[in-house]
Design a protein that fits this description.
The complex is a heterodimer of chains A (323) and B (359). By secondary structure, chain A is mainly alpha-helical. Helix content of chain A is 74%, strand content 4%. Chain A has helices at residues 17-74, 94-125, 130-144, 147-169, 178-202, 206-214, 219-248, 251-256, 274-281, 288-321; strands at 7-10, 13-16, 84-85, 90-91. In chain A, the strands form two sheets. Chain A has a two-stranded antiparallel ribbon. Chain A has a two-stranded antiparallel sheet with strand order 3-4. In chain A, helix 2 packs antiparallel against helix 7 (219-248), helix 4 crosses helix 5 (178-202) and helix 5 (178-202) crosses helix 7. In chain B, the strands form three sheets. Chain B has an eight-stranded mixed β-sheet. A three-stranded mixed β-sheet of chain B has the order 5-9-10. Chain B has 14 helices and 13 strands. By secondary structure, chain B is an alpha/beta fold. In chain B, helix 13 (304-318) packs antiparallel against helix 14 (335-345). The chains are: A mainly alpha (323), B alpha/beta (359). At the A-B interface, helix 1, strand 3, helix 4 and helix 9 of A face helix 2, helix 4, strand 7 and helix 10 of B.
């Protein structure tokens, strides 16, 4: 490396051209060495993502193909028919669709005020300190409890309470049914919406809130006009996640819903959901049409969940736009 | 530069390729040794098979793997020849037999009964039920405990005016099959309205998953009535009803009355329903549970040794193994059934050789 005698100033330090050259050469060597690695890295990330998409498409196609015998047999009437008769081979998925939608949305409606309260409480009022940590961990533990355990708890603790409630209201005292299931689901899905809500609410920039306070706003006014609008899309995303969990919940639901394969007549009557009927009847289902009908219910659940997710994402985008 | 964390990103690629390449190339035969047998099927006799196979493994040094995935799945696995033997609470229908690639032999191994459990604290003595009344209750036509039709058969019992809540199985099960088959036999109305099956369109009632589910419903709900496996009722000390059998006697469900019910003449292939049998003191809702194997054991490159092992296993289960039934609350096979089993096992061949003749 010959020094041609010229000087470069980089920043405030003087470097000779030769020194700059050799530095650049060392860097180029290093980049060349890792160029292959960079390329591989990018490709493997791409591969993992594509693999995942392929899996989802694969699941959908498998469900679709296996449902063909049932689609051929019943056609579109499968979605409006309300009899489920394995002996006569007469199948209709309406009771399960209705059961799933009613229990999930009812649970969601009950969840929204509670999870919003918890999110605000932990995100705005008690951000730090022992009570906050305790409450936050309690909510998170609630989210980690396995579904079957919720089912047991529901069956042995919640059901007798519901039964005495029904007796006091003068209704047939079964204890199990749609209302009990919704209550159980609400307890199960709160951690999902509360945690995300809390995160989003605590991330509202301080300068926005301080500006409002400096204008004389009360805490309530700040929450109503600054915090909630800002965190709206995040809160909604949390609610969507909670709804997704409620739609697919199987074990806890099957223990307290009564497994009645017919359209429910009231909010306290027993019913059945799509996930529950598949879990119950799949292992012993024999015969092409029977198995295929159950798989078609799985397909229906897949489609319903996808539609709700897409609709939810659209709404979140809408919230984001109007900010 | 720290590469270890980023190298983790290659892991999905590695795993995916391993999975994809290993699934290429079909595996037709189960590559297990000759001293290992694989069976799958019914959940009802699982505790008994578990004990039997454990003892057999220790005594004869032959490992038997049993997967209790349900009768339907067991028949399916046997038909697709992925297991050495299947197990089912319901014998294969003619339709299922024709779908199998070869003739299947049914070997009964023990007896099970379905008890009617109820939860009515006001009834202090035992409840008696007739088949007609039972069918009417499960069809929802009788919905109060003090209905005159129940009172007629129970003249000395004070019946409350509580509503009857029916509990049935929400999952497909052999127990449901046996129960609905019995009701189909004894009630024309049931036959028309509901029929027989592992899952049926129950006219009324709440569904519970498994014997545990129905048991929980019955014990939790005052006024509830449901059907459970006898073993379950005995072990959980549930109150069971006396059911009137074909000869007019009211029989308490027990191991003894279960045994009695099977003391009737059996067909050669033992594919028979024991519900509502002619036995004088037999409990009317009783059934065999069977182990299924192919009559000709020479398929899929199976060895003679394997054929010998499986027939020996089935011989042991139906003879020396029967001693383990009673302690676990299963009813053992009556002598007539054992005789039929011996004849059937003598028909199992390996090609043109009788397996039992192979030394």
């Amino acid at each position: 490396m010959t020094d041609s005698g010229l000087e470069l100033t980089i920043g405030s330090k003087p470097y000779s051209v030769g020194a700059v050259n050799s530095r650049v050469r060392i860097e180029l060597k290093r980049i060349k060495k890792f160029r292959l690695f960079d390329w591989l890295f990018k490709k493997s990330l791409g591969f993992s993502s594509i693999l995942f998409v392929m899996i989802i498409i694969g699941i959908f196609l498998t469900l679709l193909i296996q449902s063909i015998p049932s689609i051929k047999e019943f056609g579109l009437s499968y979605y409006t028919h309300s009899t489920w008769n394995p002996v006569e081979r007469e199948f209709g998925s309406l009771p399960f669709l209705v059961g799933t939608v009613i229990t999930s949305f009812l649970a969601l409606i009950i969840t929204i005020p509670f999870s919003l309260s918890i999110s605000l409480f932990l995100g705005e009022y008690f951000r730090k300190g022992a009570p906050s940590t305790f409450l936050r961990n309690a909510v998170e533990i609630l989210g980690g409890i396995p579904s079957v355990i919720y089912g047991f708890w529901g069956l042995f603790f919640l059901v007798p309470i519901m039964r005495s409630l029904e007796v006091s209201l003068g209704l047939p005292s079964l204890g199990i049914g749609i209302f009990t299931t919704s209550i159980l689901l609400f307890i199960m899905i709160i951690p999902y919406s509360a945690s995300i809500g809390r995160e989003v609410i605590s991330m509202v920039p301080n300068h926005l809130k301080e500006a409002a306070y400096s204008l004389g706003a009360t805490k309530y006014e700040v929450i109503r006009s600054i915090v909630l609008p800002y965190a709206r899309s995040g809160i909604f995303a949390g609610i969507l996640l909670a709804l997704g969990r409620a739609l697919g919940e199987t074990m806890a639901v099957t223990m307290v819903i009564g497994n009645r394969n017919a359209l429910p007549t009231s909010i306290f009557s027993p019913a059945n959901t799509m996930a529950s009927v598949i879990a119950n009847e799949f292992t012993e289902a024999t015969g092409d049409v029977y198995v295929s009908s159950l798989i078609q219910i799985g397909l229906l659940l897949f489609v319903v969940t996808t539609i709700i997710n897409i609709a939810g994402k659209k709404i979140i985008k809408q919230f984001g736009k109007t900010q | 530069m720290n590469l270890s964390l980023t190298k983790l990103f290659f892991l999905p690629v590695l795993i995916a390729s391993m999975v994809l390449f290993s699934s290429c190339g079909k595996n037709d035969k189960t590559s297990s040794s000759d001293k290992e047998l694989l069976g799958a099927g019914a959940t009802f006799p699982y505790p008994l098979y578990s004990k039997m196979f454990d003892v057999y493994g220790k005594e004869k040094n032959v490992k038997v793997n049993y997967q209790s995935i349900g009768s339907g799945a067991g028949i399916q696995q046997l038909t697709s020849r992925t297991v050495d033997f299947g197990a089912s609470d319901a014998f294969m229908s003619d339709d299922e037999m024709s779908k199998a690639p070869a003739k299947v032999v049914h070997i009964p191994t023990c007896l099970g009964a379905v008890a009617i459990a109820y939860n009515v604290p006001e009834i202090t003595t035992t409840l008696k039920l007739t088949p007609e009344v039972l069918a009417l209750i499960f069809m929802g036509k009788i919905n109060k405990w003090n209905d005159e039709r129940i009172a007629k058969i129970n003249p000395d019992v004070k019946l409350p005016s509580t509503a009857i809540t029916v509990a049935h199985r929400s999952d497909g099960s052999g127990t449901s099959y046996i129960f609905t088959e019995y009701l189909t036999k004894v009630s024309e109305d049931w036959k028309k309205a509901v029929g027989t099956g592992k899952s049926v369109n129950w006219p009324v009632g709440l569904g519970g998953k498994g014997n545990e589910g129905v048991g929980a419903l019955v014990t939790q709900q005052p006024g509830c009535i449901g059907y459970v496996e006898l073993i379950y009722a005995l072990q959980n000390k549930m109150q069971t009803a006396q059911l009137q059998n074909k000869n007019g006697n009211f029989i308490t469900p027990s191991l003894k009355s279960t045994n009695e019910a099977a003391n009737v003449s059996l067909p050669e292939d033992t594919r028979v329903s024991l519900t509502n049998s002619d036995a004088d003191n037999g409990y009317p809702i009783v059934s065999f549970t069977w182990l299924l194997l192919y009559k000709d054991q020479n398929y899929n490159d199976r060895s003679e040794e394997k054929a010998k092992q499986i027939v020996k296993l089935l011989w042991w289960v139906t003879h020396e193994g029967q001693q383990y039934a009673e302690p676990l609350s299963y009813a053992s096979l009556p002598p007539e059934a054992v005789k039929k089993v011996e004849v059937l096992l003598n028909t199992v061949t390996y090609g043109d050789k009788k397996v039992l003749d192979i030394k």
